[in-house]
């Protein structure tokens, strides 16, 4: 029987407790295709990896992470560089292009209201499946070639990471409702306001020094910080209606071979 989150450990179990971690959790345990289950301890999703404390180093090293897929833009990587305690871990990142979508760009075209920010977020999620294609292809190639465990992260671990993990889980045959509910766990695991107050130089890729996040109206900020099912539904709808479904998206947009997809499934499914 296919699972829902009520049948697998909660965000408290999935969350990797770290003093300087941001929304850092394991995606294992979900029921997938052919009665198989996503393996624990192979793929972690997270936000920024900049603020780890010395106390975090040992638990991070114990994860045995071999690769980090950094989905952020170049200027984000420069402003908040990852500080992983194991220098042998391979860091993967990708070049930007002229048409890269940002929530700031979409929000500038909308009213500065909660509804306007919500519409901007939906615009962003509609754009992400196409823009993220090189990054997602790199993630699948990383997994399929055995560079595991891997950490997949962006700034908050919510938007770009949310789409990346949704695509990966869908490719593994995890049912749609479970994929959305995994995404929604960010609302429990990612206390972004507290994180920003603790690390005042952090903007989580969502704003900059000229427009600090905590200076936004509260209702606008909540729409920005939220993991909203409608946001992820917008990305999934693009995959399903524009690109012909997850299988066609993997083949035609990500340009993955059948062998790479099968190797990814073998690597991550028990």
Describe this structure in words.
The chain is α/β, with parallel strands linked by helices and 270 residues long. It has a single domain, classed as Protein-Tyrosine Phosphatase, Chain A. Helix content is 47%, strand content 6%. It is built from 14 helices and 5 strands. The chain has helices at 11-14, 54-62, 74-79, 103-107, 114-131, 133-144, 160-171, 176-184, 186-189, 192-198, 218-225, 229-242, 246-253, 258-268, and strands at 25-26, 43-46, 67-70, 90-92, 150-153. Strands 1-2-5-3-4 form a 5-stranded mixed sheet, with helices on one face. Strand 3, helix 3 and strand 4 form a beta-alpha-beta unit. Helix 5 (114-131) packs parallel to helix 11. It is globular. Residues 1-9 and 207-211 have low confidence and may be disordered.
Shape descriptor: globular
Give me the count of strands: 5
Mean pLDDT: 90
Number of helices: 14
Structural class: alpha/beta
Question: What is the CATH third-level topology name?
Answer: Protein-Tyrosine Phosphatase, Chain A
- The helix-strand sequence is HEEHEHEHHHEHHHHHHHH
Q: What is the CATH architecture annotation?
A: Alpha-Beta Complex
* N-end to C-end Cα span: 16 Å
CATH domain class name: Alpha Beta
What tags apply to this protein structure?
270 residues; alpha/beta; five-stranded mixed β-sheet; globular; disordered N terminus
Sequence-ordered SSE layout with sheet pairings:
Layout: H1 11-14, E1 25-26, E2 43-46, H2 54-62, E3 67-70, H3 74-79, E4 90-92, H4 103-107, H5 114-131, H6 133-144, E5 150-153, H7 160-171, H8 176-184, H9 186-189, H10 192-198, H11 218-225, H12 229-242, H13 246-253, H14 258-268
Parallel strand pairs: 2-5, 3-4, 3-5
Antiparallel strand pairs: 1-2
Helix pairs in contact: 5-11, 5-12, 6-14, 7-8
């Amino acid at each position: 029987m296919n699972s829902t989150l009520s049948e697998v450990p909660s965000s408290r179990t999935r969350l990797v407790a770290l003093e300087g971690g941001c929304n850092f959790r394991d995606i294992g345990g979900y029921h997938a295709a052919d009665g198989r289950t996503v393996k624990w301890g192979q793929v972690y999703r997270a936000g920024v990896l900049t603020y780890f404390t010395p106390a975090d180093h040992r638990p991070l090293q114990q994860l045995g992470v071999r690769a980090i897929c950094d989905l952020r833009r170049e200027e984000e990587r420069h402003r908040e560089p990852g500080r992983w305690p194991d220098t042998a871990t391979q860091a993967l990142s990708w070049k930007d292009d002229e048409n890269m979508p940002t929530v700031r760009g979409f929000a500038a075209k909308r009213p500065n209201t909660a509804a306007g920010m919500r519409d901007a977020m939906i615009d962003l999620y509609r754009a992400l499946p196409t823009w993220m294609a090189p990054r997602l292809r790199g993630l699948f190639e990383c997994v399929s070639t055995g560079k595991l465990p891997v950490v997949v992260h962006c700034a908050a671990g919510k938007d770009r990471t949310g789409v990346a993990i949704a695509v990966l889980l869908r490719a593994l045959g995890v049912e749609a409702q479970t994929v959305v509910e995994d995404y929604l766990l960010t609302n429990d695991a990612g206390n972004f306001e507290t994180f920003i107050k603790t690390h005042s130089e952090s903007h989580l890729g969502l704003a900059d020094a000229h427009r600090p996040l905590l200076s936004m109206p509260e209702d606008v900020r909540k729409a920005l910080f939220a993991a909203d099912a409608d946001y992820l539904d917008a990305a999934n709808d693009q995959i399903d209606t524009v690109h012909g479904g997850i299988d066609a998206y993997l083949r035609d947009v990500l340009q993955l071979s059948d062998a790479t997809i099968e190797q990814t499934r073998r690597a991550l499914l028990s």
